[in-house]
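Hi team, as promised in this morning's meeting, here are the two structures we talked about. I've kept the exact order from the run log so nobody has to guess. The first one is mostly here for context; it's the second one we should focus on when we meet again. Sequence first, then the predicted structure tokens.
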Amino acid sequence: MYSNQFLPIVIPSLRTLGNLMTGTEEQTDLILCIPDFMKNINVLLEHAKKAVRREACWCLSNIAAGNSLQIAIIINYPGCINKLMNLGFNDVPEIKREALWVLSNITKNGTLEQIVYLLDIGVFLLFAESMDSHDDKAIVVILQGMINILERDDVFEARPVPQNISDHIYQKLQILIESAVTEELFDKAKELLNLYKKRFPKMIS
């Protein structure tokens, strides 16, 4: 399945599975019950072909948009989150964006424990550093992930954002608000800034 001779099958198969998982949670559960599904997706995250890595991330982002039990399957699969973090830090912009989608989706529907786990392995640092991207779509995804985290009192109390990271994000937010070229990006940056006023009043004053 992983060699180049299977590429004409692998990419359409991933696209079909991803489309199915944009449906109901029950449909996603059926896909997750396929033998070795997560094993194969996990391997394909490191495939040499960019298109394969992109589709593998897209499948995972659809799972991460589901419920906390489905999110747990991603988090609990050995090495999967670490590979997504590596893609977010080091891959080409197109793949970085897809990996960020997965992680951002987890922050939306994840449990306290799941989000704290992401914070403990550096997801907020990844989000902060990725704000330097020239990919507006990726930045919107990043901002939404940070909003999801900062909106949760339980998460903020369990894992306050380190001062150096919060300073960096605040500086980048100011730049984004001044230079945003799309309404969506401007609105999302303002939304996060308003949360900053709540969470870090001393920094804003």
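And here is the second protein, the one for discussion:
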Amino acid sequence: MYIQRNETGLYLYIAEKLLACEKHEEALNYFRKAYEQDGDSLKVLLYIEKYYVLPQEQRFKENYARNCEMIDFTFRYEDCQFNFIPSSDDAYEVFDKGEGKFCGSFDYSDYKNRPMGNKTFQSVLIADTGDARDILEIFNNHLWNTAYIVLNNAIGKFMSFFKLLDFTAFLPNNVHIFEDTKKLVDFLAQNPDMYLPRVIYASDQIKYEAMIEKIHQERIQSERQGKNVFLSICIPSYNRGKLALSAVQHDLQMKYDAEVEIIVSNNGSSIGLEEYKSIENIKDSRVQYFELERNMGIGFNICNCLEKARGHFAILFSDEDSLFFDGLDELLDHLFTHMDLGGFVSDYTINSTEKCGARKSKKFQTGVYRKGIEAAIFSLYTCYVTGVGFNLLYLRKYSNIFECIKNSDKSKYSMECIYPHSAIFEFLAEYFDLEKIEITIAAYGIPSKIGGFEGIEDRKDVVFSYQKPENIINLQTSQLLISEAFLSLSDYKKLFFRCTSFCIGSIASSFRDLEDIMRKQYNWTDIHISVYQNCLQILRESKWGIEAFDKKFFHDLDEVFFDWLDCRRIRSAYSEKENFKATLRAQMARYCYDQGVPFLEIDFRAIDESLETIIEQAVPGEKSI
């Protein structure tokens, strides 16, 4: 003990000498050594208070008063648990008066100009943590949507940091600080549009998770409609009440309340009425159900969903598909960091043993498609409704888009049979970027032959309206009509080729998926003639007129048709002999073309007749068709 006291005295002596030379930081190190020697600790603390704390006291009080302007509760300056001992111009040693020990330092340089973390849609709760340095680390990791701090018994430690100049500048603007848990609960009850914290930092995390879950349940069981919806899940439905009810019940298992809503629009169904009534009677504040008196068509129903939605963004879902919860957090994060995005398409996963499509086309790569020609081409491939999303702020601004689609008979757009959501994308392509997002947001259900995303009539056959060649050809006309309003002639030509190829490719997919039916009702060569004739009609009626399209343009257009003439995609619908004939037919057509015969003047019937004998000799057997 005697030696310790001697060392303590020596350290104090050195510290005072250093102070006399205005070497405050070095002096403080010796005061700390003296204190840690367990000598006359009170005496050492009085030295520190005299030379370091008291000269800063008035400034600390002024800082404290200014920083306290951001909170709505009162805490006495004298009850602060930490003292801050300046060791340099921008750094302080932190002393815990309650525990009687030094506990590290606070250096402004650690927080000034620090790289900001990734922006996230999630909100965070930090509870029972008094050391602001730990809290600042959490804030530096992410830019949270909203941050909640609950102090409880840690209030004396946390409020101590308010002594520091501009300390609150290190806190996010969207932080809410509460002196105890009850105040937080009351705040969230009084502000049901505030997003609940889904990320929690607390020593007793289970307690706070249970608290948040209780508030969540109270919110969804209320009849109040939210006013701060970020994402609207829109389900246009027709004659598939059972599927729609199942999808809604599944989607309601999500953890969100104020952030997300579900909009169901029943397009005047006559089937599944009991299930639709069940949706209407669901006691969940997130569900909004609307019913049209009669079937107004697919375009009208989609628009009804989007017009009723209150979110910043909306995403369409077929009633046979369900929400993929693992992807929802990612999607919300992505949209929250890309608030100016005009529209998007997300991925889906397979939820059945049925053979289903997937968005893996090389023409449909992940990334942003800039407004104009890029976005217009992108819109061609947004076929499947589930996962297609829009920025509702923009759709509300350009509300004429809804009118064009709902009244397509008056606006010359043929959208009732297929893909009105693609048309919305094309309208948006003039003004905004679109994006393919590599986030799986939906589980793809088993396709149904009745109702749902179908046209006005309730389908009784097995061919969907979107699979009929005549409807696909009409779609081509509408797609080009929309885009010519804002594209230059050179960009319009690019889109024309892509749109024509997409048109023939879509018909080929119908042949592949409906082999017997399509080959009996349609002839593949005749399809090419019909599409080509439609192309000429589109060009004649375009604002430039057909004269604006030169010889090179038509040569490139002809190449599109030749590329599809011998189509591998449809080969499963035909026999080996028929496919052999198709290959020879394409080669002979090419020869005629190279000899100067225009594509539409090629006599395919004469070619077929001349091929019969050749094929019969090469592949004996049943006569080819």
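Starting points for discussion:
The mean pLDDT is 87.
Residues 1-67 form one domain.
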